[in-house]
Structure formats: C-alpha cells, structure tokens
Specification:
- By secondary structure, this protein is of the alpha+beta class.
- The chain has 3 domains: 37-274, no CATH class; 340-479, no CATH class; 502-643, no CATH class.
- 49% of the residues lie in helices and 15% in strands.
- It has 16 helices and 13 strands.
- Strands 1, 2, 4, 5 and 8 form a 5-stranded antiparallel beta sheet that branches. A 4-stranded mixed beta sheet has the order 3-13-11-12. It has a two-stranded antiparallel sheet with strand order 6-7.
- Helix 12 (509-527) packs parallel to helix 15, helix 14 crosses helix 16 (600-637) and helix 15 (579-594) runs antiparallel to helix 16 (600-637).
- The longest helix is centred in the last third of the chain and has 38 residues, at 600-637.
Length: 643
C-alpha cells in the first residue's frame, strides 16, 4: 500500500511539474521587463477589432487602414488563437523619449466596399486594439462617481456618427466619421542610475480630421491641417473626416512621452481598474458570509441529528426493537443497489473529476500569477493543456466506480468517458465556429488549430483516459459496508417536498447563491471586454461552492433515506448539478439586462457558449455532490450494527 501510494504521489508531482514548466514558459516571454534607450525604436502592434454589441472580433486590416509592406503575425499561443487575437505589425513606429508632432502614416482611397465596412463597424461600436511593449492602448475616461482617479477604456472607437439636418427638406441624415488621427502618449519610468527607461503606460486620443493638402509627395507628404511647421495646429477646430465612397483619407498620428512615477511592476494596475466602478466588495463579502453562515448551520444540524440516530440504533438490543426500525436504517439492504444506467453515471462522474482537477490546478496557477491578464491567452492555454492531462484522473475514477457496480465492459465505459463530454463540446464548438467563419470574423478558429485540438484530444487525452482506466480496474473493487438484498424493497409514497423534481430543484439554489455575484464579474470580463484579475477571491468562492454542494446534497440525501427512498445515486448527482440550470437562467437575465447584442448570430454565439459553460458546471457540481453523498452513505451504514 505504501509503495503504491509513493508511486501515485511521484506520478502526480511529475505531472504537476510538467504543467508548471509549460505554464511558466508561456508566462515569462510576455511579461519580462525590457529597458529602452533614448531613440530606440518602439514598434506598435495591432490586435483585433472588438465590439461588445456583436462579440465578433475582426482582423485590424479588415478595414482599410495603413498597411506595412509586409504583414507579419506575432507568435501566438493556443489561447490567443481561440480568443480571436491576431497580433500583427503596423506602420506606427515611435522612437523612445522623442516626441513626434504630426506624422503622416499613409493615405488611402475608400472604395464602396471599404466605406460600407467602416459604416458597419461604426454602427456596431467597434474598437481598435493596439499593443506597445505588451501594454494595450487605452483611452482615458472620467469616473462616473466624479472622482479624480484615472480609469481606462480598452481600445479606441473606429469612428462615430451624427444626425445631420438636410438644408432643403429638413430630413435627418446619418453621417459617419472615421478617427483618422491618433494622438498617442507613452508613459515611461526612468532608471535613476542609467539612461534606460521602461514603458508603463500607453494612451491614445482619437480624432477625426479632414486633412487638406495641395501636392502629395509620397517621400515627404505635407498636409495643411497637420505638419511639422504647425505644431499647435491640432488645437484648432477642423472639419471631421467623413466616410464616403471614393474619398481619400489621410491617416496621421503624433506621439508624446511623459515620465511617470509608476514602476514597471505596477503598470497593469490602472488597466485592472477598468470595471472598478462595478465592483461592490462589501456586497460580495456579505454574500459569501451569508453562505458560510448557512453552511455552518446546515453542517451543525446535520451532525447533531445524525449522531443521535446512530446512537439510538446501536442501543437496540431486542428483536422486537429491531423490527420497529424506521428511516434510513430500514433500507440498508437496498442503499447500495446499482442504479439504472450505472455506466452513464460512471462516465459523468469521471468527466466531473477531470473538470474539477483542471479547474483546481488552473486556479492555483492563477493565484501564483502565472495567468495574469498581461499573459495573453495564458489562461485559455493552461485550461486546454490541463484538461488533456487530467484525462488520467477521469479514466481512473470512472473505472473504480464501474468496477464497484460490477460492470464487465470496461473498454466501452472507457471509450464513453474519453469521447462523450469532449465530443458534445467539440460538436457545439464546431457549429459555432462555422457561424463565426461565415461572418468572416477573425474569431473563427483556423483549420490548423482545430486539427491541433483534435490531436491533443486523440493523441494525449484519450490514451491517458485508458491508462487511468487500466489502473482503476487493476485495483480491488470497493466493498459495500452492508449486503444488498436480492429483492428490491418497495418505496412508500413520498411527501410532496421530497418528490425528485422539487427536491432536485431546491438543492441547486444554495450552490448557485454561492457564486452568482462572482458570476456577474466573470460574465462581464468575457462579454464586455474587461480584465478579470481577482483570482484569489474566485478561489475562495470555488471552495465555498465545493462545501455548499457537498452539504446540501448530504442533507437532502439524508432526508431521502429517512423517507425510505434508496434511489440516491442519480438524485445526489442531479441535486448539486441543478445549480447549472440557475446559472443558465442567470445568463439569460444577464443577456437582456447588461448586453446590447442585436445580431442573431451574436445571440446564437452567446447562448451556445453559455450552454457549454452551464453543461460543464452541471458535470463538476454534480460530481462534487455525488462524492459527498457517496462518502456520507458509506459512513453512516458502516457506523451502525446490522444483523
């Protein structure tokens, strides 16, 4: 036993170290500090065009912006590709600590299709995302509460539209204007001992200016509304650049540098306060305290009642007293009877263990700082890799349970564990990806990445599920604490509040109550293009969710057994898992109250992804409830004297 335990521990440590090395390698290149000398080139990279109204990202060069001679994609990890990030080079290049007062980037003639694309993106409130030294560009905004603290909006708008009254008819006409001049400001923190400095901020003020020029010279373009001889010209009032077909648009920019006291290690702090006005710490902590208080009360009542029952049953001495048994001890001969569709239950439990292990390790990495927002795509990459490696635990737990139920077709059970849940996810994801591809969005996962995901699934996850299943079947079967009768006992009529549907739905309320406030911030970070960073708080909520699922399932299972209903296997899984139903209902409420999605495709994408999230939540919470109830039932029946 000791040798086996040692091998298991060694294997687990090896896997953890392997994953840590993988996560570490993704983390360091993106956030390592870099020192810049005065005059050193600072290339600006462009990212996707994003909109909270459509949730469909587009490549920056989907619109007719200035293009470099050769577009080069930056190295992207798996998470960035899945998120729709397309990081590429641009024509914008600065020189460290050297201001540039109005530089012409290029001029472009808008054809009918380009003008149409610009108008559509302005209608859908698309924002342009750029990156300098791994910092996203942001626009300063005024806090709603009137305070003077700095907050940012992620990216800048493609343009804007206004209603214009026609002089003759008086009819209002919508006119579209493009932000073709960008005023950048780069904040830097200077090293007091050397001339080097580190970039700690990247801001922009977008403007729309209809530039005027006489003779265009590609080598040294001069525009009357913006040139090196008129440094203060930008302070004046200019006609904005309208989006019209066959119109020439001149793109310009200027850049200024400002020394800052912010250190490099704290440069993300301002970005992480983007949704600070929505965070109500008091209400979150208050909610968690209520859940903890209720959980403590439930546990205390449960333990006192149960200890009294066991003490009373163990004091029965005569046969007449034994015949007067009622409640949960009366069904001891049926409590461990295998349930209907026991093989499917094993598959779901194994899958739940896989998701639980993936979630737990991901949160630990996030707590350690490996998956901070500065590491783009790191969280998604870690989740995919961890899911693949945790297939070992899925196969092991599924096989152990299947062998306890005296199942014989272990290969079929293993195949279901390896393919059922990932297969459903992949099918839904494939359909959603096809819709994104149809919209020509950069959020569509390329064929090569899709093939890589399939290779990870079939090449690593499936073999690990089989290895885990083999190890699980090699171990002796779990013995029941009491013998099972050959003839099933008849279940008496149950009270209305103990009927399966009502009991299951009631059981999901408390676990959902433990997470619904935190769920708001998670949905906001996903669908409103915000950064999520309070992983420590999320970990606490996850632990409370685990405790709450376990306790509510045990309590309802105890009441069910006291009602002489021994069909607890599936009921324990569904009781905690029903919280996923409330999660999905909340996502519907969030859709109609917080989001401004109007496109049908965007709505399908939202609900498609939320169905996937709710399904995964159902599997993991159901597994937590099942194992809690499984431990509880074995504990109580092994604690009483049964003749």
């Amino acid at each position: 036993m000791g040798t086996l335990y040692g091998r298991t521990t060694t294997t687990t440590l090896f896997l953890v170290l392997l994953i840590v090395v993988s996560a570490h390698s993704f983390y360091l290149p993106g956030v390592a500090p870099r020192d810049f000398q005065t005059g050193e080139a600072l290339p600006v990279k462009v990212n996707k065009l994003s909109s909270t109204k459509t949730q469909l990202p587009y490549d920056y060069y989907y619109l007719k912006y200035c293009k470099p001679k050769k577009i080069v994609n930056s190295a992207e990890n798996l998470g960035e590709v899945l998120r729709g990030d397309r990081i590429e080079n641009s024509v914008y290049t600065f020189q460290m600590r050297k201001d540039q007062s109005c530089k012409v980037a290029c001029r472009e003639t808008l054809d009918a299709e380009s003008a149409k694309n610009f108008k559509e993106k302005i209608d859908d409130e698309y924002r342009v995302n750029m990156i300098l030294d791994n910092l996203p560009v942001a626009v300063l905004r005024q806090r709603r509460d009137g305070s003077q603290s700095t907050t940012y909006e992620h990216g800048f708008r493609v343009g804007f539209r206004i209603l214009d009254n026609l002089p003759v008819s008086g009819i209002k006409e919508e006119k579209y204007f493009i932000n073709n001049h960008l005023s950048f400001r780069v904040m830097y923190h200077k090293d007091p001992d050397t001339d080097s400095a580190r970039i700690v901020g990247f801001e922009v003020i977008p403007k729309s200016i209809n530039h005027e020029y006489k003779d265009w010279d590609d080598k040294d373009p001069q525009v009357a509304t913006c040139n090196k001889d008129t440094k203060n010209a930008m302070q004046g009032s200019f006609v904005p650049q309208e989006v019209v077909a066959d119109k020439v648009v001149v793109y310009t920019y200027d850049v200024s540098f400002k020394q800052s006291e912010i250190k490099w290690a704290s440069r993300w702090d301002t970005y992480l306060l983007m949704n600070d006005d929505q965070i109500h710490w008091f209400s979150i902590i208050n909610s968690l305290m209520i859940v903890l208080f209720l959980s403590g009360m439930v546990a205390m009542i449960m333990m006192r009642t149960l200890y009294r029952d066991i003490a009373n049953y163990n004091q029965l001495e005569t046969q007449d007293e034994a015949q007067e048994e009622t409640g949960w001890k009366l069904v001891h001969g049926d409590a461990f009877r295998p349930p209907i569709n026991s093989g499917l239950l094993c598959v779901y439990v194994g899958t739940g263990v896989q998701i639980f292990a993936m979630t737990l390790v991901t949160m630990i990495f996030a707590l350690l700082g490996f998956l901070s927002p500065s590491n783009r795509g790191g969280l998604m990459t870690a989740m995919v890799l961890l899911w693949v490696f945790m297939g070992l635990f899925a196969g092991y737990s599924s096989a152990r349970l299947y062998k306890m139920f005296k199942g014989t077709e272990w290969k079929r059970n293993t195949l279901k564990t390896a393919f059922m849940f990932p297969g459903i996810l992949f099918a839904v994801f494939f359909v959603l990806n096809a819709l994104i591809w149809e919209e020509q969005s950069s959020g569509a996962v390329p064929f090569g990445t899709m093939f890589a995901l399939v290779c990870l699934w079939f090449g690593i996850s499936v073999p690990l599920v089989f290895v885990g299943s083999y190890l699980g079947f090699k171990k002796p079967a779990i013995e029941d604490p009491v013998k099972t009768n050959k003839i099933p006992r008849q279940i008496p009529e149950q009270a209305w509040y103990m009927k399966p549907v009502f009991s299951i739905l009631i059981g999901g309320i408390l676990p959902f109550g433990a997470v619904f406030i935190e769920l708001f911030f998670i949905l906001t970070s996903i669908w409103l293009n915000q950064f999520y960073y309070i992983f420590g708080f999320l970990f606490i909520v996850f632990i409370i969710l685990l405790i709450t699922c376990a306790e509510i399932t045990v309590v309802l299972c105890y009441f069910q057994l006291c009602g002489e209903d021994y069909h607890w296997w599936w009921r324990s899984y569904l009781t905690a898992g029903s919280s996923a139903l409330y999660l999905f209902f909340y996502s519907v409420f969030y859709f109609f109250t917080k989001l401004e999605i109007t496109k049908l495709v965007s709505g399908i994408l939202y609900f498609g992804y939320m169905i996937i999230v709710s399904y995964a939540f159902f599997v993991v919470t159901g597994t937590i409830g099942f194992y809690a109830c499984f431990w509880f039932v074995r504990k109580i029946y092994s604690s009483v004297k049964i003749d």
